[in-house]
Each structure stands twice: as structure tokens, then as C-alpha cells.
Design brief:
six-stranded mixed β-sheet; alpha+beta; 6 strands; 47% strand; 2 helices
């Protein structure tokens, strides 16, 4: 599993980074597949986001941005974690959830 650091200043940069990383992992053409997202909530407060890239033949590749450690965990189509990215700066989730 690889680890790296990244600075993402807004939600669009975060989405783009996640989308490109997931596409690159599975050698998918960028822009050809849809990515869904869902805010994760713990005890009534937003605590992260779940991203899911819907690839060909019902393949799903996922990533979880968790705000406590401010990192993104990437999982391939088999469920294997292949990358962890520590965010040096990231958007505030409370502003996204509003």
C-alpha cells in the first residue's frame, strides 16, 4: 500500500483527486464513468465522505475521506486498500454538509 501527502483546497479538488486516483488504479478512461458520493455521519455529525466509482461490468472502486485523521483511504475492486493519502489541507466537511 502506498502512502502520500496532498493539499486539496476545495471540494472540487478533492473530488477530482479521488476520481483520477481511482481511474488510474483500474486503468479506466477518465470521464467515461460516474462517481457517486455520500456524506458519512457519526452521532449526528458529518465525519467523512464515501466515494464510489462505478466502472464497467458493475465494477465498483471506492475511497473514504475520513476527517478525524484527515486522510483518504482508497480501495480497489476487490476491496484491497491500495493507497492512503494524508491531506495537509482539505475543505471543512461541515460546509459541504450544509
Amino acid at each position: 500500500m502506498s502512502c502520500c501527502e496532498c493539499q486539496l483546497d476545495n471540494l472540487n479538488d478533492l473530488r477530482q483527486y479521488v476520481y483520477e486516483t481511482l481511474c488510474d488504479r483500474e486503468s479506466l478512461i477518465r470521464g467515461a464513468f460516474h462517481m457517486s458520493e455520500q456524506i458519512l455521519v457519526r452521532q449526528g455529525r458529518p465525519c467523512g465522505m464515501h466515494f464510489c466509482l462505478h466502472g464497467p461490468r458493475a465494477v465498483m472502486i471506492t475511497a473514504i475521506w475520513e476527517t478525524k485523521q484527515n486522510s483518504i483511504l482508497f480501495y480497489d475492486s476487490t476491496g484491497l486498500r491500495f493507497q492512503k493519502t494524508k491531506l495537509v489541507a482539505a475543505p471543512m466537511l461541515e460546509t459541504v454538509a450544509a
